[in-house]
Amino acid sequence: MPPSRPVIAITVGEPAGIGPEISLRAAWQCRHEIRPVLIGDAAYLAMLANDVDPAIRLMGVSQQALRYSSLPACGKDQITVIDCPLDAHVVAGQLNPRNGRAVLQTLDVAIESVQQGWCDAIVTAPLQKSTINDAGIPFTGHTEYFAQQTQTGQVVMMLACEASDHLPQPLRVALATTHLPLKDVPAAIQFDSLLKTIEIIHHDLRDKFDIAQPRILLAGLNPHAGENGYLGREEIDVIIPVIAHAQSLGMDARGPYPADTLFQQKYLKDADCVLAMYHDQGLPVLKHASFGLGVNITLGLPLIRTSVDHGTALDLAKLGVGHADAGSMGVAIRIAAGMVKRQ
After folding, report:
1. DSSP characters for 131-176?
2. What are the helix and strand counts (H, E) for the chain?
3. What is the pTM of this model?
4. pLDDT higher than 70, residue 1
5. Taking residues 136-165, what's their average pLDDT?
6. Domain boundaries 7-152+301-342, corresponding CATH code
7. pLDDT above 90 for 334
8. Cα–Cα distance between 12 and 309 in angstroms, integer?
9. Taking the CB of residue 215, how many other CB atoms lie within 10 A of it?
10. Which overall architecture, per CATH, does domain 156-287 show?
11. Do domains 7-152+301-342 and 156-287 have the same CATH topology?
12. Where are the domains of the chain?
C-alpha cells in the first residue's frame, strides 16, 4: 500500500532560473498532502527559502548518509533536501556551465531515490539544456535522459491539463516524436514506433489514470490528414494501418484527423488523449488552453515522472523572488501523488 502522504522527489532545475523558487513554494504549499523531498544545493535553497517565505523549514541530508540509511523522519512543517552541491555561485538569470554537471546529478539522484524506495515519484523543475551541453555533456531533454538512465526502449511525452471554466474535461496531448527538427519528422513516423506509442499511452492511461478503455485520437501528419494522398502519403502508408492494427489488438484508437480541426469540443469530448505527430502540432493548443497549469508526464517509464509545462524563465528569475508562478509545479506534484495512490 502506498503511504498516506506519497514521498515525492522534486528536482529544483536550473539554479539561475525560477526552478528553485517554484519548487520551494509548491513543496511548502503541498506539504500536508505529500512528503516533498527537494533535490538540489541545500545551502542555496536555505538562503532562497528565507526570501520566499521565512516560515519554510528545510532539513538537509547528504547523499552519502542517505545511501547508508534512509530518509530521516520529517514532520509536516519541514522539507527534506538531498544535497547536490553546485560548483559555482548562482547569479539569478545568468547561466553558468560550471553548474551543468551538478544539475544533471539531481536527475540521477532522483532516479536512484525511486529505485531504492526512498521516494515514490519524481517531479522535475525546468532546466536549461544548453548549460548541460556547454558543460560538455550531450543532453537533449528530461524525457530522453530518463529513458536512457532507466534503460527504457521507448517513452512517450504527454502534456495534460485539468478541467477548468473554459475546458469542460481534462485535455491530454501526447507526442509521436519529441525534440526533432521538423525536416526529420516524416522519416520518424514508422509503423512499429507509432504502434508502440499507442500501446504505451493505452497501458499508462489504464494503469496510472484508472481509465478502463482509453480513447486515443490521432492527428494526421500532413495538412487535411494528407487529403487522400494528394498532400502526402504518411497517413495512407503508416498512420491508418497502425490505427487498424491497434484496433485489432483491442485498443480504441481513431483517426487520423486533420490537426487544424481536431482540437474542438465535438472531438475532444470523446477523447482521453490526442496523439500529435510532432512537438509543435499539439502542444501550442494545450499550452494556450492551460499555460501555467499544464503538466508534462513521461509515459512508459518504470517510475512516475511529471514536470512543469514551461521553461526556466531566466528573465523572471533576474527580477528577483516573487515574480514566478508556482501553479504548474503544484499541479505536477498533485498529479504525481495521484498516480502513486492509484498504483
Report:
1. HHHHTT-----HHHHHHHHTT-S--EEEEEE--BTTBSS-EEEEES
2. 15, 12
3. 0.91
4. no
5. 90
6. 3.40.718.10
7. yes
8. 14
9. 16
10. 3-Layer(aba) Sandwich (3.40)
11. yes
12. 7-152+301-342, 156-287
